[in-house]
Amino acid sequence: AAVPTGVLALLGALLWAPWRVLHGAPLVELSGDQDFQLFLHKNLEFTRKIKGDVAALQRVVCDTFQLCKEEELLLVRQDLGIAQAPLEQCHSRTFQAEACFSQIRDGLRAYHGSLAAVLELLPGHASLVETLQLDMANLSSNIQQQMEDLGLATVTYPTESGGPLPAFPSHFHHQVGGFFILANFQRFLETAYRALRHLARL
């Protein structure tokens, strides 16, 4: 049966009303919750630290393998099948807190596994990669805990990059794979950071 136009218009208006509803409670109410604000500010700092560590690894890949510019590697990327973990639920126009937190958590878990490829490439920087993985696990756990504390439904999103890592046909492909895992992860973190920061400003 066709959906009445008025209902579609209402749904459209709701979907375009960004950052509005959190499990039935207006975010304005939650934004005054001290524990929620503490969670947001603490994890904004945490996300900033993780972004800095990823940037440090990107510099190492650039210095070690002279892989620095994404546009020069796009043809090789097509052969690798390395996907970006989805975060469309965290964009302001489609934002839903439950879904966004779930996607951040799931994406962190997916990239945690992907970093094994970077660890193999950069054995001399194992401590930085392992620290990064530990921070990611802690951030994912913080988000899971906060969702439970707020009574949010936890949804598990399938992540395209959640499967086993691709078998790299050559060492060069492995290097480029490591480059794109870090580049994708940095973009993922930027979006997650913006979502948390917007919530903290409400």
State the end-to-end CA separation.
39 Å
Main sheet, how many strands, which sense, barrel? 2 strands, antiparallel
CATH fold field value:
Growth Hormone, Chain: A
Numbering strands along the chain, what is their spatial order in the largest sheet?
Answer: 1-2
Label the overall shape: elongated
Radius of gyration: 19 Å
Q: How many DSSP H or I helices?
A: 7
Give, in order, the helices and strands: HEEHHHHHH
Write down how many β-strands occur, each being a DSSP E stretch of 2 or more residues: 2
Task: Please identify the structural class as seen in this structure.
Answer: mainly alpha
- Which bin fits the share of residues in helices? 55-70%
CATH level 1 class label: Mainly Alpha
Key attributes of the depicted protein:
202 residues; Growth Hormone, Chain: A; two-stranded antiparallel ribbon; 7 helices; 2% strand; glycoprotein; growth factor activity; IL-6/GCSF/MGF; 4_helix_cytokine-like_core; cytokine activity
Structural features, described:
- The chain has seven helices and two strands.
- The chain is mainly α and 202 residues long.
- The chain has a single domain (34-79, 96-154, 162-200), classed as Growth Hormone, Chain: A, CATH 1.20.1250.
- The protein has a two-stranded antiparallel ribbon.
- Helix 5 packs antiparallel against helix 7 (171-201).
- InterPro entries: 4_helix_cytokine-like_core, GCSF/MGF, IL-6/GCSF/MGF, IL6/GCSF/MGF_CS.
